[in-house]
Write a structure and sequence with these properties.
Layout: H1 8-20, H2 26-37, H3 43-56, E1 59-66, E2 74-80, H4 82-100
Antiparallel strand pairs: 1-2
Helix pairs in contact: 1-2, 1-3, 2-3
């Protein structure tokens, strides 16, 4: 069975979930991505990517505690699974091999 395909945005969201290490929720992920990529990030796009990643088994989620700041509503917190971490490791290895195989070109 082949590796499940991840699009660029899904990969960025998965990396951010891993970085936030148990404190990842939609808005925090969107803000982190906006800061790191200097791109406009759509919150609903982050949510769609999170649910896709969860369906594929790369992340898992649970409801966090209710807070007064959220009007008593609970956040859905995401964390990376072992399968998600393995997939990121494989993607990194493939990318590193490709980078290493670029010939040293003179662009003059």
């Amino acid at each position: 069975m082949g590796r499940t395909y991840l699009g660029e945005f899904e990969e960025l969201v998965l990396l951010t979930v891993a970085i936030l290490n148990g404190t990842a929720y939609g808005l925090a992920i969107a803000e982190e991505l906006k800061q790191r990529t200097h791109r406009s990030i759509n919150l609903s796009g982050v949510h769609v990517a999170l649910y896709r990643l969860e369906e594929k088994g790369f992340v898992k989620s649970e409801l966090g505690g209710a807070t007064a700041a959220r009007g008593g509503r609970r956040k859905r917190l995401f964390s990376i699974t072992a399968y998600g971490k393995r997939t990121l490791d494989e993607l990194r290895q493939v990318r590193n091999e490709l980078w290493e195989d670029i010939p040293n070109l003179s662009l003059s």
